[in-house]
Amino acid sequence: MIKKIIGNKSDSSQVSYNMATKQIRYEALVKALHGDLYRYAYWLCHDKHVAEDLVQETFLRAWRALDSLKDEKAAKSWLITILRRENARRFERKRFDMSEYEEAAITDNLSTSTEQEIENHWLREKIAQLPEEYREPLVLQVLGGFSGEEIANLLSLNKNTVMTRLFRARNQLKDSLDEEPLARGSYNG
Amino acid sequence: MDDLQFRKSIYADPQTSDDAIIEAMNADPTKKKFAQEIETLDAKISQAMQIPVPDDLYNKLILRQTMATHQQKKKKTRIHLALAASVAFAVGLTINFMQVSTAYSNIGDYALAHVNHEAKYFSNNDEAKVTLASLNQKMAAFSGSFEQELGELIAANYCRFDGMKSLHLVFHGKSSPVTVFIIPQNNELEFIANFAENQLKGKSLKYKDANIIVIGDKAESLQQWQDNIEKNVRWSI
Q1: Does A173 contact B45 at a Cβ distance shorter than 8 Å?
Q2: Would you call B64 and A56 a contact, using CB atoms and an 8 Å cutoff?
Q3: For the whole prediction, is pTM greater than 0.80?
Q4: Residue range B229-235: average pLDDT?
């Protein structure tokens, strides 16, 4: 019995040691990846608040399952997988259509912005208007820095499909850029 | 590499490290120009995608996790408390049980103590007044009976043998009374076939539902008593 108590004690100190390590790992993970994850979430749902909620849910789940993350290099794709699942769950919960792009969702203070920001804003709208299946691989490639193969794994698609979608996504953006420089000018007017 | 294929590849991945594409790009200035165009586009896309992250998001995430952990810990404390409570409860039960239960580890010790305790009530000069019939009446409680008298029976009484109802018989012996206990089977006291102390010694017999213990002084032939009991006792099923 005494042995057991002593055993428990060292167990619990082991546990608290593990907890401390886990805490450090977690904080490092949050620090390094919360920005990328937030942006990714934003491009999934076009809503700052929903994106924030998604990131919070994702990291909370990540905390609970942190022991299952063995390879720190895989952390980003791991988190993105959790976030995508979380996002899908959101649609299971409430069935209102979030994929419809809301213009008001992107708020950028135009009156005080520079030329560059205006262009960014304009491009953001174009990106947001891309069909979801084109936008997601593009976000993963440009923001996440994932290769075609990695994106294929994340989205459970084959690589050719991913490459085709990436091609179409950029093609559409290029087309709209080529089409609309005049409209862009009047946008600010 | 034809132009369409090249454009498709560049559109799909402007940062490509595919040797064939890079070679084609270096060989054809038009292709190179196109690749640069798309790279510029990509830089713009990348910049556009870098939407500002809320300043407090990091802190919020840490806070949220800390709260969640805290709650988990609280739950754990409750579990620990419950564990401690059940351990205390078990310890209490054990102590209680040990106090009620005997300090004697086997039937021999208990039987000797019992005999010594009651020694002053019986002497070898007491009149033998219990008949076989009244003995067997008492034996019925143990679903047993004796065929013949085992000896001159001074007393036959139910008594408490370590909390169990048992039959306590006192016979005339050679120099001092011989005590026979019929006790129900139990697991609490260890069975012991032979035991002794300064003046007394004892032998036990184990039956299916009961043990029979004979205790007498050193002059007594307990083996004879035991054989006699063995011969005469009948257990009904």
Answers
A1: yes
A2: yes
A3: no
A4: 85
Dig out the tokens for B156 from the structure: 């036959």
- Exposed/middle/buried for residue A3 (C-beta within 10 Å: 0-12, 13-18, 19+): exposed
Q: Are B229 and B214 in contact (CB under 8 A)?
A: yes
The C-alpha atoms of residue B83 and residue A136 are separated, in whole angstroms, by 50
Q: Which residues 6+ apart lie within 8 Å of B197 measured at CB?
A: B112
Q: Which residues of B touch A174 (CB under 8 A)?
A: 11, 38, 41
What is the Cα–Cα distance from A137 to A127, expressed in whole angstroms? 12
> What does the buried/exposed string (b/e) look like for A71-106 if buried means 16 or more CB atoms within 10 Å of the residue's CB?
eeeebbbbbbebbbebbeebeeeeeeebeeeeeeeb
Taking Cα atoms as reference points, which of B69, A62, A139, A128 lies closest to residue A54?
A62
Amino acid at B202: G
Looking at every residue in chain B, the average pLDDT score rounds to: 84
Say if residues B168 and B181 touch (Cβ distance below 8 Å). Answer: yes
What is the arithmetic mean of pLDDT over B165-185? 87
Tell me the CA distances in angstroms from B6 to A146, B2, B14, B44, one per residue in order: 21, 6, 11, 21
Put simply, whether B54 touches A (Cβ < 8 Å) is yes
CA of A84 vs chain B CAs: smallest distance (Å): 18
pLDDT digits (tens, 9 = 90+) for A59-98: 888 888 888 888 777 888 889 989 988 888 887 765 555 5
Indicate yes or no: CB of A39 within 8 angstroms of CB of B12: no
Residue A189 banded pLDDT, cuts 50, 70, 90: very low
* Rounded average pLDDT over B65-87: 82
Q: Is B42–A27 a contact, with Cβ atoms under 8 angstroms apart?
A: no
